[in-house]
Amino acid sequence: MKDSEWLANLARHGLIAKSFVPPKPIRQLRDLLRYRRKLVESRTAERNRLLKLLETANIKLSSVMSNVFGASGMLMLRALVEGQAHPNEMAQFAKGQLRQKLEVLALALDGRLEDHHRFMLTLQLHRLEAVEADIAVVDARIDAALAPYQEHCQRLQQIPGVSRVLSAVLVAELGTDMRVFPSAKHAAAWARVCPGNNESAGTYKRAPVRKGNVHLRTALVEAAVAASRKKGSYLRDKFYQLRARRGPKPAAMAIAHKILIMAYHILSGDAPYRDLGDTYLDGLEKRRSTRGLVRRLERLGYEVTIEPKVA
Length: 311
Prior knowledge:
Layout: H1 2-12, H2 24-56, H3 71-82, H4 87-91, H5 102-109, H6 115-145, H7 150-156, H8 164-174, H9 184-191, E1 198-200, E2 203-205, H10 214-227, H11 234-246, H12 248-268, H13 280-299
Antiparallel strand pairs: 1-2
Helix pairs in contact: 2-6, 2-8, 3-6, 7-8, 8-10, 9-12, 10-12, 11-12
């Protein structure tokens, strides 16, 4: 009751900060992208159930194929439902480089598929086709809603790891008007991709990242993992440097924080994205080491003059 009275008193004097509520078109785009994420998650869950069902019939396609639900895999799954083809015949549906594994494919397809498995497999394939159709419809709607923000999305896609879908998520969750955040650090704190605050008696301790907007954080971490695979980029070099000291998950969160800062400045119109390159950290470490050694020598009473070595 006392808390309620205090909140009412603050609201009466206008001392409660306003919440961030994006404009209506952004909110509608946000609903579409969040629903698309749910559809993709349901598709992934259905695929996992299908693979588990095949394993109960001693069919292990995932050990041979990187994508069981590609063009070759779907042909094999439909042939398994019909139950008329021999494993060697079903292996012939392989395309591209997968044809180099015909013998292994035939062994993976040689299982004990019963009527119960075929019935369940038919239902699961039907569910997958329905989800794929729904995702296609939602994607078309998202493309139409993204028409006014194409320029923002294209600029965001310059960041390594940010794809078309991830750029749309950043626009939907952050908006395009960065004036709602006083600074890039405020935006990172609002998105909860910065370390928490753990202070006691003037001593600051390491604190985990706080819980926040799961849709934005998931997109940023996904972009960070993709950026860690981009050869020749600053984000990749920074990720591996942090991973050696902190581990993969904290390193991915740190790169997600950097991507959000970049997105803030890009959406603010301050500057386009400019990659520092994979040699930036090496040069930075060289300069730091040089300054440290010079200071140590000066403390010992030496006057130091640095000249680059002639090649």
